[in-house]
Amino acid sequence: MVDGKHKTFVRKKILFVFLCCAGLLGALLGRLLYLMVYEAEHYSNLATDLHERERSIKAARGRILDTNGVVIADSKTVCSISVIHNQIEDAEEVIRVLSDELDLSEEYVRKRVEKYSSIEKIKSNVDKEIGDRIRTYELAGVKVDEDSKRYYPYGELASKVLGFTGSDNQGIIGLEVVYDEFLAGKSGTILTVTDAKGIEIEEAGERRIEPVAGLDLQLTIDINIQQYATQLAYQAMEAKQAEGVSIIVMKPDSGEILAMVDVPEFDLNEPYEISEEVKQSNPEADDQTLLNQIWRNGCISDTYEPGSTFKMVTAATALENDVVSKESSFYCPGYVMVEDRRIRCHKVAGHGSQDFVHATMNSCNPVFVTVGSKIGVDRFYESFEKLGLLSKTGVDLPGEATTIMHKKENVEAVELATISFGQSFQITPIQLITTAAEIVNGGNRVTPHFGKLVWDAQTGQSTALQFPVSEGVLSEETSAQMREILEMVVSEGGGKNAKIEGVRIGGKTATSETLPRGRGVYIASFVGFAPADDPQVIALVIINHPQGQYYGGTIAAPVIKKLFENILPYLGVIDYNEINSENQLEE
């Protein structure tokens, strides 16, 4: 009986073990079936990845062109040199050749050649001629891949506007970074098959995923105007031994920027070079600080006291609010008292009796202090908001600074007085010219911009870039009055050095002393537009810290005169032949 029970127990035990084994086998078969059928693609890709090496191919970055289609930023073919450790047969020969051809130290190359990695980059952006020469050595384990590098045919021209790219072909500063999503394109890859040791299987060849080139970007910049404005800026900087000169040229009705100069500029093809002169000027600064200074675009990133050019805003606000008319009468004894502070006129003896037009022509501080007090804090700040002065312009460049203005609740009589003639606050050059544009263009706030359109060179499809315009921020009547007054500033007033015979030009001069005052350090500026009755072009020049004569009407206005003499006929705004004919008829 015991034997029977024992046998039954053994049989049950065997059956249990059998069922467990069968269950396990079934589970394994099920898992195998799942992996082979449902996960086949996933594990196939993993296996492929294990035996494939990937090398990136940079996409050709889209070109940047000026408004006439002239290429001002392009891409040229270069090479990237890499090594694959497991494929190298003669390490010493590889080290010798690469260090010689690439002008690199043996130590640097050896460290990368002997590194156990799937692929190690030695150098990128190598001239194609050198890359082709390295290929002729037929060195096992050395890969020479063609790549794309940014190239700027005009060197330093518009450098602080265009910006440049890094080694990865992505934008670093300027328009290159703002429009990177259009310009960058999509990188491609080269895929090669290797065995378990990482040795490339020659019979397997290679697979390529071709890069997709970036879109081209056309700008509003006119390279001819940019070149001439740059030439004038350097001439003014040298003549006045100034620290820098900025010039902006814009279409006042659209905000299209035809030129933006901020000298000294830098070579876009060698953006990381720092001259000895720059190093000596700030010996305590590290290289990155110096580079940031070199790359900084003062037209949009730096603020300054606008001085008398801001009287355009005060005048427009006063006319718009019926605080004054062109015929309003004032008296200037040479100063005005605001609380316990004496604010002087630049003419010590004073201008005597004058109407508002002549007060503007004379740039008379006492009159504008009086006008400012009549406007009052509330209406002044309402006007600032409406004109867009307290916000950024929205220009399509990175790093735009904001107006530094008193808080409204902190503005007392003295602050109101100094604001009225352009002191005790700071704005950017781009803000000033944009505000001046709306004052003379009929009262519309435009967005200053460089982008015009993007297009696909392969398909020919293009997309125009749009920028907002706020209409009616100033009445057409006030704008017309301002054009008339500012034309008289040039024809008979302080801006007469910008006058061109036979051409109607309007404008306003400024001379402001930098803080802290009393050091004799000034900024001279002039904003001008033409034709005065129907502005097609507006321009601003700022001369920072000139030596000797420093008045805006004396040294800045002539720069705009030269600029307009050159670009107005070029743009078809004026015809000197017609002007000469009319002058002869009058005679």
Q: Which overall shape is indicated by the principal axes computed on the Cα atoms?
A: elongated
What count of helical segments does DSSP give?
20
Mean pLDDT across residues? 90
Rounded to the nearest angstrom, the radius of gyration is: 35 Å
Can you walk through the features of this model?
There is one protein chain. The relative contact order is 0.10. This protein has two domains: 53-136 and 145-219, Penicillin-binding protein 2a (Domain 2), CATH 3.90.1310; 223-271 and 291-586, DD-peptidase/beta-lactamase superfamily (Beta-lactamase). Strand 17 (506-513) and strand 18 form a beta hairpin. Helix 3 packs across helix 4 (106-113) and helix 13 crosses helix 15. The protein has helices spanning 2-37, 40-51, 91-101, 106-113, 128-135, 159-162, 174-178, 180-183, 223-239, 276-281, 287-295, 298-301, 311-320, 356-361, 365-387, 413-420, 429-440, 476-491, 552-570, 576-586; strands spanning 52-57, 64-65, 71-83, 120-127, 142-151, 188-193, 206-209, 216-219, 244-250, 257-263, 329-332, 335-338, 341-344, 352-355, 451-455, 462-464, 506-513, 522-530, 537-544. It is an alpha+beta fold and 587 residues long. The radius of gyration is 35 Å and the shape is elongated. Strands 2, 3, 4, 5, 8, 15 and 16 form a seven-stranded mixed beta sheet that branches. Strands 10-9-19-18-17 form a five-stranded antiparallel beta sheet, sandwiched between helices. A three-stranded antiparallel beta sheet has the order 1-6-7. The longest helix has 36 residues, at 2-37. The chain has 20 helices and 19 strands.
